[in-house]
Design goal:
The chain is an alpha+beta fold. It has four helices and seven strands. It has a seven-stranded mixed beta sheet with strand order 1-2-3-4-5-7-6, sandwiched between helices. A hairpin with a 3-residue loop joins β2 and β3. The relative contact order is 0.14.
């Protein structure tokens, strides 16, 4: 797992592009802009996975998580999300949020396996008209976890 910086934007965009439809894929410029922002944490699995998280005060959110199709169901997403949870915990986050399409059952299963639970819904949020489920998980702050 690599802690990504702006120099990794092209590699992250390539993975994202292989993982999402052209209408939903983020380009190099989007990744570069996000990675340059304060509080944004990028993680890159060179085999074919990326995650971007943002920490603001004591809350974090997953901005995007992508795993190349040929690597799905091989725990790449699980490792990325677990690493993101550890990184935001170290940055002082107590809670993490994310949004997932109600139709994306594999991703929902991943998030539920790591303790995320639905706390809201955004109607017709995605371009295909599907709702976004807002999920939340408590993250234990590093200062209260003894290290």
């Amino acid at each position: 797992m690599i802690r990504a910086g702006v120099t990794h934007a092209a590699a992250m965009a390539a993975i994202h592009g292989a993982s999402f439809s052209p209408a939903e894929a983020w380009g190099r410029d989007v990744f570069a802009l996000q990675l340059a922002l304060p509080g944004v944490i990028g993680l890159l699995d060179p085999a074919g996975g990326v995650v971007l998280a943002r920490v603001a005060a004591d809350e974090a959110e997953i901005l995007t998580l992508a795993v190349q199709p040929d690597l799905r169901r091989q725990r790449v997403g699980h490792r990325l999300l677990a690493a993101a949870l550890a990184a935001v915990r170290a940055a002082g986050a107590r809670t993490m949020f994310l949004e997932v399409s109600e139709t994306n059952r594999p991703a929902r299963g991943l998030y539920e396996s790591l303790g995320f639970a639905q706390v809201g819904r955004r109607r017709r949020y995605y371009s295909d008209g599907s709702d976004a489920l807002v999920l939340r998980r408590t993250v234990i702050c590093a200062a209260t976890a003894g290290g």
